[in-house]
Input
Amino acid sequence: MSSYDKHYYDGAWQASSGTETVAVISSSTEAEVARVPRGTAADVDKAVKAARCGFETWRRLSVEDRAQWLEKLAAAMKTRVPQLAEAISHEVGTALAYATKVQVEFPIMMIGMNAKFIREAKLEEELGNSLVIKEPIGVVGCITPWNYPLHQIVCKIAPALAAGCTIVLKPAEMAPVSAFMLAEAAHEIGLPAGVLNIVSGSGRVVGEAIVAHPDVDMVSFTGSLQAGRRIASVAGDGIKKVCLELGGKSAFVVLDDAPFDKAIAAGVNNCMQNSGQTCSAWTRMLVPRSRHDEAVELAKAQLAKLTLGDPFDQNTRLGPLASAGQRDSVLEFIEQGKKEGATLVAGGGRPAEPAKGFYVEPTIFANVDNKMGIAQEEIFGPVLVIIPYDTEADAVAIANDSPYGLAGGVWAGTPERALAVAKQLRTGQVDINGGRFNVLAPFGGYKKSGIGREIGPLALEEFFQLKSIQR
Ligand code: NAD
Output
C-alpha cells in the first residue's frame, strides 16, 4: 500500500506546512501499512483558496461538461478497484469480497450515476412572475468517517461536484488512503485545478479549520453525534449550511405473522454487515414476547454461519474492527450489557484466534429492555440486542424510543401490514419484508441521526441555493 507525503489541492500535490504524519494501521495485522500528512490550518487555508478560485470556473461549466468530468473520474477509479479494496480491508477490517463490491464498486458507480442525475435535473422553474433558478452553493467542506471511507466521500463529492460546487475534503484519520487514490484519479484525468482539494489530518485541527473557514459556504459531515454537535455549532457561528449524517440505533420489527426463519436471518445479516460498523445497521431486533426464545435460537443459528477471520481469506464474512480503540469500546459495551442484566446468548468477548488483529466475537444479547444502555447507545460493533414486545403498538413505541432515527426494518405476514408499521417509524429509511437497498432513494436521519439527505437524485438539492428573479 502506498504512503502519501503531500496533500492535494489546486490541481497539484502540495507539501504540508506541518511536519507530522498520521500512521494508517491494518486492523488485521496491527502493522503500519501507510502514512499520510497531518495537515494544519495553514494547509486548509490554501486548499480553501484553491477551491474558491476553482468555483468561479467550475460553476460556469455546462451541466454536460460537469457530467462528463464525473464519468471520467468514475472510469479512472475503476482501474483502481483491487488497490482500493485492499486498502479499505486493511483500514476498516471489511472482508475483501464485500469491500470490493460495497466499499469500492458501489461508490464508483455512484460517481457515474450523479452524471445522469445532473443531466436530468430541473434547474429552472417558472413560478408566477418569477424564474426560480438552482445555483451551486459554493465551496463545500466535506468531513468523512472511517467505516465506509470511499462511500462516505462519494456521497458528498459526487452530487456536490455535479451541482457545480467545489470541494475541500478531510478524510478520516484511520482510513484516508481511498481519498488519496481519488486525488490520483482526479489528477490523472486532469480535473480542473481547485475543483477537488484534499487535506488529511485530525478533526480538531484540519476539520475545525474547514468548518470555521469564512470562505467555506457549506459543511457536509458524516460521523459521530458528538462531532456533529461541535461542527453544527461552529458552522452556526458562521451562518453556514450544514448537512449532518450521524449515528443510529435502528430497530428491526419482526411481527408475529412474519416468516421467522427468513426475517431473523435477514436481521442478523443486516446488523453484522461490516462487523456492525455501519451507521444504519439494525442493531435492535424487536420480536413478539411469545416467540422470543424461538427468535433467539434462529438468530444464534444465523450468526454461526458468519465466519469470523482474516478479511483477506475468501471464506471470511466478518473481519476485525477498525482499531484497538474501537475494539475496546465495543468490549466495554458488552460488559455493560452483562451488568445491565441482559442475557448473553452468543459471543461476548475477544476470540482466541486470530491472535493478531482487533477482533471481537459477534455477540447477541437477549431479553433486553429498551431502557438499557446497550439498547439506547450506538455500539458500532457486532452486537445485536433482542428486545421482546407485547403488542404491535408496543413494538412501534419501542422502535421510536431512541434518540436516533436513521434506518429500520419491518417484516410482517403481508406487505400492507408491514407498510402500515413502517409509516409509524420516525426514521429516514425503512426496508419492509426484505426490501433491497435502493441507490435512487434519499438516505439520512430523523432526530439525532442528522440533518439533510445523501444518495440518489434528491441529494443534489443539498448543494443548491435558490434564486428568484421576478419579471
Ligand atoms: P467521528 O465523528 O469521530 O469522525 C468523523 C470525522 O469527523 C473524522 O474525519 C474526524 O476527524 C472528523 N472530526 C471529528 N471531530 C471534529 C471536529 N470537532 N471538527 C471537524 N471534524 C471533526 O466519527 P467516526 O468514528 O469516524 O465514525 C463513526 C460515526 O459515524 C458513527 O457514529 C456512525 O454512526 C457515523 N456514521 C454515520 C453515517 C450516516 O450516514 N448517518 C454513515 C457512516 C458513519
Notes: Residues 271 and 281 are 5 Å apart (CA to CA).
